[in-house]
Amino acid sequence: MTSKLDRTFAQLRQHGEKALITYVMAGDPSLQDTEQLVVELEKAGADIIELGVPFSDPIADGPVIQQAAERALRSGASLRAILSMIARLRAKTQIPLVLMAYYNTIHAFGPERFFQEAAQAGVDGLILPDMPPDEAGPLKGPAAAAGLPLIFLLAPTSTSARRTFVARQSQGFVYYVSLTGITGAKLLNLADVEKNVGKIRKVTKLPVAVGFGVATPEDAAKVAAIADGVIVGSAIVKQIAAYREKPEMVKHVAEFVRSLKTAMRMAQPKSG
Amino acid sequence: MMSSVPNKQGRFGAYGGRYVPETLMPALLELEQEYARVKKDRSFQSELAYYLKHYVGRPTSLYFAQRLTKRLGGAKVYLKREDLCHTGAHKINNAIGQGLLAKRMKKPRIIAETGAGQHGVATATVAAMFGLQCEVYMGTEDMQRQALNVFRMRLLGSTVTGVDAGSRTLKDAISEAMRDWTTNIRTTHYILGSVLGAHPYPMMIRDFQSIIGREARRQILAAEGRLPDCLIACVGGGSNAIGLFHAFIKDKKVKMIGVEAGGMGVASGKHAARFAGGKPGVLQGTMTYLLQGEDGQVNLTHSVSAGLDYAAIGPEHSYLRDQGRAEYTSVTDDEAMAAFDILAREEGIMPALESAHAIAHTMKVAPRMKKSQILVVNLSGRGDKDVQQIANMRGITL
Fold this sequence. Notes:
The structure holds two protein chains of two kinds. Helix content of chain A is 50%, strand content 13%. Chain A is α/β, with parallel strands linked by helices. In chain A, strand 6, helix 8 and strand 7 (174-177) form a beta-alpha-beta unit. In chain A, helix 6 runs parallel beside helix 7 (137-146) and helix 11 runs antiparallel to helix 12 (249-267). The model of chain A has no long low-confidence stretch (mean pLDDT 96). By secondary structure, chain B is an alpha/beta fold. Chain B contains 16 helices and 14 strands. Chain B has helices at 25-40, 42-56, 66-72, 91-104, 118-130, 140-145, 147-155, 170-183, 201-209, 211-224, 239-245, 274-277, 315-322, 333-347, 353-365, 387-393; strands at residues 11-12, 15-16, 62-64, 76-81, 109-114, 133-139, 159-163, 188-190, 230-234, 255-261, 279-283, 286-290, 327-331, 374-379. In chain B, strand 5 (109-114), helix 5 and strand 6 (133-139) form a beta-alpha-beta unit.
């Protein structure tokens, strides 16, 4: 079965483009803001939007996203409220929406119920940063029944055995973590990223998206030359944090996203 | 019949596992392999035994607390004196084991988290002795109430890094240590201090601590010619408790009781009694009983004792409780403080505030038992580190 993510990557490929995947923390600073951001970021050039589900103990995240989660929790953003927001959004936009959630939030919700309600609300995929495929067995049935892709991550430390194992379990795309570290760290070694993306391509036909450490339009352009998708998180969340009390917040963040997409397009040689 | 746990996936029944970012998976798999190797390696085991004997001071004594027994008027109370270990608590049993492992894996840098500071001090000590670079993460709230241990770690040459996130206690220190490990994984071994986190940590740390129960079993047989009726230990993550329990698990007649931090009372919501107020969930790499809200956010905890002030319990304890093999209860801050005074005055032993929880429950249980019955209580650490905090709580300036 092809998912909306599959179709999005296929369409972009036809146009000789790479996917810009933008991350925002749902509920930061409020769910109304997130709703508006999704609509405006799509207009500014985002191809897929990753919505963070706030968690009290985000072990894979650096301070920028930790603080965003704290703001979102203070604003009352629960998984239930986030799904309602997504259902509302579906009247306005069909952009693929992927949830990024620490497993405990799904566990507390009830995995079976979660997959049903998420698919109904219009979620297009799920990333669980603290659940490698080794532990995801019990989720596969409910996820498949709901038609929701489970997207798994690979890291620079992944061995060749794990690269094959994880890539084959992943659906929609493979999320390559560009560095050994947490979100918001500085991108160090593009040659290394290129080498590892190449190795992943040898074991899967899925698109490979690169995240962690992509902060500027220049970074985005460079990564776009290597991968099928560019994931930008902390850099966007930082802008939201800085402008969160100003009326022009959404407009400002949209401008930043536009600059990312423009840089990616310029770097991309037109093909076909 | 209980089978041997954990299984190959690191599962203790429904609990445990490996819920971590992919970046850490290869390191956990490497650690699991390396640990399986050294477990069977005679030279490693004899090196470990050497340090436990000559550096830590093992075996620790099993002391018959005569005056406490008389005062309580029931079962004979024996104290397993982990407070007599070098650095003042059982934590060093694990720190030595993992320090040796880090050396074998050629990791020049170690990191640790600490709540009460006991594990941090043990790790800093081992790092100094083995010549490893060491950084310890500690919540800023805990740094305040355990200032003495912070200074001790610095004297030992370690860096202590304050963590100013969330509740600013043990939980946040673990998250920060995991982030450091994720970033520096190629050069660094993470010496986790309790039977928590992803596989193989809960199993490996249990094994390193199980010397407590192996000694106690031998010692009580020598002293009394029979096994005890009941074991009591405090449970934060639960390493001292599992260390005492492990050698007795197959002795079905030996009752095992874990004592959690009841804080200001379970009804107040200000506590760390995971079995009384929690339900299964995933925190920091493992599936276990967890204090959490309806939508899976982890609750803030409270205990007078920094070492018990944690929202989750080691996965093997969740398993032992589900199996009915161990039972768990809690005592309040006030009960633990009262037990501290009684042990100090009756026996001349100041327990760590963590261990005072085990003493407090002993004071409830022993009087209801027959004089012919035997209780073994794990005195997991000494109270010197808590003297300043107790003075503060009593409005005394030292």
